Amino acid sequence: AEYMGREKQVICMEEQGMKRMEMSAKAQDNMREGKNCLNTTICRCKPDYLEAVPHFKEAAKLFLNLEDYENALFCFQQLATCNHELEDHFEVGEAFKGEALIYLDKKNDPKKAQESFTKAVHEYQIQGNVRQAQMMMMEIATKSAHKKFDDLAEDIFKKIIDDVFEEEAYTNLGKAVPEYIEFLLSRNKLGEALKIYEKHIVYLGKIKKQSNVLARTCFCVVCVFVIMDEPYVAQDRLRGYEQVYPEIIGTSYFNAGHDLINAVCNRNETLLRKTTQRPIVSQIETGLHKKLSAVKIRVSVSAEEKKEEAKKSPSPKEPIRESSVLKVDEIKIEKAEEKTIEKEISKSEDINIQHNPDVIPAIDGKQKSPQQIKGPSLENSPEPPASPVGEDKFGGIFKQWKLYSQLNYIALLY
Questions:
Q1: Which of 8, 16, 272, 329 could form a disulfide with 263 if both were Cys (CB 3.0 to 4.6 A apart)?
Q2: pTM exceeding 0.70
Q3: Cβ partners under 8 Å of residue 377, min gap 6
Q4: CA–CA separation, 361 and 365 (whole Å)
């Protein structure tokens, strides 16, 4: 069995070798025939470009299958020359496109690839086939992104997007915007992706046909701001879209946007998980959907920290304000002192009336003489009584002095 298996492998390799040799011989023959058509002879005074085109085209295909890229490039160059002489701009563009794909895919030479695809775009535009030019640019841009030629891919994507939005040809090339956004998200260029989303929203608002696509794009803008940890900006932006484009109100994407913002602002892990698990959310760009998982981790971590802080912090109690208590005590003391002073004043008035009746003011409102107005002098004013035993020395002296000054003031008034 092992011998038979090896024998079959040898037979297969021999067959593949024979096919490869046949293909190589056929490709060489076609290339030779094409060259002969371009040569001049006694019977042919000028090159036969029309006859040479099919030979070079067949040879180019065979050389690509044989992975003989040098001969394939030569055949594409000859095709471009022949079709240019025949003024077939579409075929010239196809030849330059073949060159660009070889330089990009096989030779890993983005500079020459850019030169070739620029020539191809120019030929397609001369022919008036704008859609074909955009499709070719889209293919080159996608392959450049996969090959990590970021500068070339971004330049081509920008040209495609500008052509799409300027000529309002989004319906002709609906994949341009998602592909470019996927490229930007894979390179973490959220700001550039946000600009494309907003330009797309403006365009969709003009045509007023694809309300569901408009709501989806608005939701993607909300997702970008949430990923950038700016949920309140996302909330303001969604409110603006609600006012400008009322047709998105009530759609599933609009409701999902509000739930996403509320979940992030309130650090509600359950609501965020339910929102991101909706089927409509899985229909957005893959890069955007993947980045939302980082938001879920961020919200879950903040929710756990919030719970731990709540456990550590004690139940809130109102602190006792010493200043307010002191103020209340001072007010009470002042009121008590005022009452004692009023009592002492009333007693002093009774004493003054008994000893000196002339000091009583006239009720009829007439002006009094200086003798009537003159009251007891400070010299004859009674001395403050001594503080009793056991009383606070300084507190008693202060109270006695205050009472003494009040009595002197009243006596002077009288």
A1: 272
A2: no
A3: none
A4: 9
Element (H, E) at 121: helix 110-127
Identify the CA nearest to 103 among candidates 87, 114, 92, 95: 114
**Per the structure block, which two tokens stand in for 211?**
């309300």
CB 37 within 8 A of CB 56: no
Residue 72 contacts residue 57 (beta carbons within 8 Å): no
Could you tell me how many residues make up the chain?
414
Contact 397, 387 (CB under 8 A): yes
| Helix-helix angle 211-227:231-244, to 10 degrees | 160
DSSP per residue over 218-278, as a string?
Answer: HHHHHHHHHHTT-HHHHHHHHHHHHHH-GGGTTSHHHHHHHHHHHHHHTT-HHHHHHHHTS
C-alpha to C-alpha distances, 370 to 367, 374, 413, nearest whole angstrom: 10, 6, 12
Contact 226, 234 (CB under 8 A): yes
Q: What is the dihedral of CA 202, 207, 210, 216, to 10 degrees?
A: 0
> Helix 150-166 and helix 176-186: axis angle, to 10°?
150
**What is the Cα 381 distance to its own chain's centre?**
86
Q: Convert 164-188 to b/e letters by CB count within 10 Å (16 or more is b).
A: bbeeeebeebeebbebbbbbbbebe
Angle at 259 (CA atoms; ends 256, 265), nearest 5 degrees: 140
8 Å CB contact between 129 and 121: no
3-state helix/strand/coil string of 180-203:
HHHHHHHCCCHHHHHHHHHHHHHH
The highest-confidence range among 125-134, 307-316, 404-413, by mean pLDDT, is 125-134
> Residue 241 — pLDDT band, cuts 50, 70, 90?
very high
State whether residue 40 is helix, strand or coil.
coil
CA distance 216 to 211: 9
- Give the tens place of pLDDT for each residue, 351-397: 444 444 444 444 444 444 444 444 444 444 445 444 444 444 445 56
The contacts of residue 48 (CB under 8 Å, 6+ apart) are 37, 38
Instruction: Provide the 8-state DSSP code for 291.
Output: H
